[in-house]
Amino acid sequence: MEIRKFLRPAVLIMTATIALTMAACSQFEPRDKRFYYRALWNFALREDLAELDSEFNGVDFGHSNLYENLLLTGGNNVPAIEDRARKETLAFIATKPRLNPNEEAIAPTYMKLAWRAQNTFDEAHALHRATYDIVVSDEPDKDRAIRNVLAYYRDSAYALTSKRLDHHRLDQFPYSQSFRKRFPLFNATIWAYHYLQVAVYDPLRAAQDLTAKTQAVRPILMTYRGYLAQPPVQWTFMPLTAELSPLFAARYPEIANIFDNLHMLHDNISDILTSELLPTWEAKRAEIYRLVNTYYLASADATNPMVLTTQPGQEHHH
Fold first, then answer.
1. Rounded CA separation 43/36 (Å)
2. Helix, strand or coil, per DSSP, at residue 31
3. Would you give the DSSP letter of residue 292?
4. Where are the beta strands (DSSP E) in 121-275?
5. Treating both helix axes as pointing N-terminal to C-terminal, what angle do 115-136 and 50-73 enclose, rounded to 10 degrees?
6. Does this model's pTM top 0.85?
7. Which is nearest to 265 in space by CA: 195, 170, 183, 177?
8. Which residues pair with 307 in a beta bridge?
């Protein structure tokens, strides 16, 4: 009898512990990260056009720093975002970093909130980097190399759809545009990143050698740095690949769609992290994953109501 009295509370404590552990584990996500596509052209941008590569490294910091600060401040502290966090990003960019930063170290809280969404970004960013490397490199068959890296990307469970999505409708959720309205300077800074990321493709492809490529991106870098100094708050929508690199978008429409969808998802998540309509971290996480799973991943193509059938140029302009 005495033994039973002793065991009963112990069993209850053990059961409660297991239940709590299982609940906590349900929040864990497997981190099945992939290695980048390996080829002789890897890091051609870093080795041959370091000036442009360092700007992209700064962009990586900017996205993560923004999400971490939005999450930790509740998305309603204007000086913390527009002044402090934005200036932190500009200061990092000004250091001209030689390597892309460890985004998990910059945004540890956000990474724990929505790691799978972040990995979706990481894989699309790797596709960005691969296409820059191919265009800058002396790879003799660039079309084949781009087809190969696109096939590798699309083989991932984290691949964004290569279909054209209705960005207007994706910008009309109840919480949409809350980030750009509350933080117009930082929003315009984000759109300036996206300008740089897509505007360089056509000039790089048209230039015949490294000297010409270096010269070709200089005006774009000057424009981009001007946008950092005076963010283009007059823009009403994010830059699109077909607007800024129409030849690249026409030759590789699936890749152009992936990049535009990537940038739209960035805007959606900024809105979710800002909006009071999703007041808890759990609500924000659930909405981020609802969007990713329903509208953005290629695995949702068959049922995705946001897939467009109109031709490029019939959509919108900023």
1. 11
2. coil
3. I
4. none
5. 170
6. yes
7. 170
8. 165
Angle between helices 50-73 and 184-199 (to 10 degrees): 150
Token digits for 154?
């699309």
Quick: pLDDT tens for 245-267: 999 999 999 999 999 999 999 99
Q: Measured between alpha carbons, how far is 216 from 210 in angstroms, rounded to an integer?
A: 10
Q: Which residue has the tokens 């402090």?
A: 84
pLDDT for 24 equals: 43
Name the phi and psi angles at 183, rounded to 5. -130, 65
Q: Is 239 within 8 Å of 199 (Cβ atoms)?
A: yes
Tokens of 239: 């830059």
Helix (H) or strand (E) holding 149: helix 142-154
Q: What are phi and psi of 165, to 5 degrees?
A: -100, 155
Measure Cα distances from 249 to 96, 110, 123 in Å. Answer: 29, 32, 19
Q: Is residue 225 exposed (0-12), middle (13-18) or buried (19+ Cβ within 10 Å)? A: middle
Q: DSSP letter for 26, please.
A: T
Query: What is residue 312's predicted lDDT score, i.e. its pLDDT?
Result: 56
| CA atoms of 146 and 131, how far apart (whole Å) | 7
Taking each helix axis from N to C end, the angle separating 253-274 and 184-199, rounded to the nearest 10 degrees, works out to 170
* Residue among 245, 239, 255 nearest 195 (CA): 239
Q: Looking at beta carbons, which pairs linking 301-309 to residues 24 or more positions away fall under 8 Å?
A: 301/161, 301/163, 304/161, 304/163, 304/165, 306/165, 306/166, 306/169, 306/170, 307/161, 307/163, 307/164, 307/165, 307/166, 308/163, 308/164, 308/165, 308/166
What is the spatial distance between Cα 312 and Cα 301, in angstroms, rounded to a whole number? 19
Q: What is the mean pLDDT of residues 262-290?
A: 97
Closest to 229 measured CA to CA, from 100, 62, 87:
87
- The one-letter amino acid code at 167 reads H
Separation between Cα atoms, residue 177 and residue 271, nearest integer Å:
6
Helix (H, G, I), strand (E, B) or coil at 23: helix
